Amino acid sequence: MMLPHGCDTHVHVIGDDATYPMVAERKYTPGPASVSALQAHLAGQGLTRAVIIQPSVYGTDNQCLLDALAGMAGCARGIAVLEAQISGVTLKALDAQGVRGIRLNLESSGEHNITQLRTALQTWAPRLVDLGWHIQVYAPMDMIVACASVIEQLPVPVVLDHFALWHDPLCTSPTSVTLLDLLAQGQIYIKLSASYRSPIQDAQALHAVSQRLLNTRSDRLLWASDWPHTNREPGRDAHEVSAYRNIQAESLQQECRQWLPTAEARQQVLVDNPHLLYRF
Asked: Quick check: 229 and 197 in contact, CB under 8 A?
């Protein structure tokens, strides 16, 4: 599969400890994942673009992300994690460097606080609209649905990580119906990514969910590899390096073809949708 301008919309870059220190309160410690390794990964997938996501281990210090964007020479965009008091001038400077949104990660932290998510959405959205940014959320499906009435009113899109942590294979529960409605309205994007993080561990069932999403709003779907596949190894201290998951390039390609079974779907989800959302 070779797609000129095809985009992997969820990757991380991890620099060396001396230059990019991780926060002391992190939940795990990943090993190095360089820009050159990212470029090799993209080449192996037949893609040329990436969206680099600020990992939780760096907190709100986005320097590694910004340096990685510079190293990708226009072939990447970024999603940052920001302090609430950041100035508008700084936001514009980040936009000029390729940042296109902020990430609210309530899953990795284990902070499943609906009020916190609702407040963050309402606080950030007005500040991001003039930039053309969006809010990326990693949180359980039920939390997203609990905030549906807020999301419906936001002036910016919400992008949901990793299949929105979808847990209903039949897509018939009230939670599924609400999320499908948000998708049909165009209020949310959903990333088809990281099957190993999904509550649905049956490949055929997850495929069925992908087809339901594709048939609902193909222009609101994204694909991502979740490279380099961060992991918290059982028994490892938070400050000990946890090895990355061993996910083969071929298995990523196979999943992509399963979830996006036609050339038209792959063109839209891998090329057209990220081109518009991330302003390549």
From this structure: no
CB 134 within 8 A of CB 277: yes
Supply the pTM of this predicted model: 0.96
Query: How far, in Å, CA of 33 to CA of 11, rounded?
Result: 10
Six-digit token string for 218: 């193909």
Measured distance CA(57)–CA(269) in Å, rounded: 29
Give the C-alpha separation, 17 to 22, whole Å.
Answer: 7
- pLDDT tens, position by position, 170-188: 999 999 999 999 999 999 9
Helix (H, G, I), strand (E, B) or coil at 241: strand
User: Which residue, among 100, 98, 61, 97, has the nearest Cα to 81 in the 3D structure?
Assistant: 61
Q: What is the DSSP letter of 261?
A: -
Specify the amino acid at residue 193. S
Residue 97 CB: number of other CB atoms within 10 A? 15
Q: pLDDT for 254-279, tens place per residue?
A: 999 999 999 999 999 999 999 999 99
Residue with tokens 């990212």: 38
CA distance 234 to 153: 41
Question: What is the per-residue pLDDT for 4?
Answer: 86
Q: Give Cα 161 to chain centroid, integer Å.
A: 5
Residue pair 222/277 in contact by the 8 Å Cβ criterion: yes
Q: Report helix, strand or coil for 171.
A: coil
